UniProtKB/TrEMBL annotation:
Residues 1-126 form the START-like domain. Pfam families: START_2. This is START-like domain-containing protein. Signal peptide: none annotated. SUPFAM superfamilies: Bet v1-like. The lineage of its organism: Bacteria, Pseudomonadati, Bacteroidota, Flavobacteriia, Flavobacteriales. It comes from the Bacteria.
Length: 128
């Protein structure tokens, strides 16, 4: 199996961190922008897109700040994706930081996918 490459993205967003956290950490929030539907049982989240399902385990979270998931398909690896809320101490500007992994020839595609999803999130928040 090919090594995946870690990449990070930053998206400035106009929303309060506490509101944003509900959209990144709860099934109902995630289903507003990340997937068509999201269900969870404990730490297991099921993401549904156009009839296909992917399962991910919530491997860590810090209330009001970040969530980190590992796809079940990547269970025996160190790969994960993290959505983190970052607030600038001085300006109080809010950004969403994404950390994800993709195979070398899929990094650009992965970045584009995140850009589209964050754009959807901004629309849901009215922060366009």
């Amino acid at each position: 199996m090919e090594e995946k490459i870690k990449y990070e993205l930053e998206f400035p967003i106009q929303a309060s961190p506490s509101l944003l956290y509900n959209y990144i950490a709860t099934p109902s929030g995630l289903s507003e922008w990340y997937a068509d539907n999201v269900n969870s049982r404990g730490e297991m989240f099921t993401f549904i897109w156009e009839g296909s399902e992917e399962k991910a385990k919530l491997i860590s979270k810090k209330s009001g700040e970040r969530v980190k998931f590992r796809w079940v398909a990547d269970e025996d690896t160190s790969y994960y994706f993290e959505i983190r809320i970052q607030v600038d101490d001085i300006t109080k500007d809010v950004s969403i930081m994404i950390t994800d992994f993709a195979e070398e020839d899929e990094v650009d595609e992965g970045k584009m996918l995140w850009e589209n999803m964050i754009s959807d999130l901004k629309q849901v928040l009215g922060s366009v």
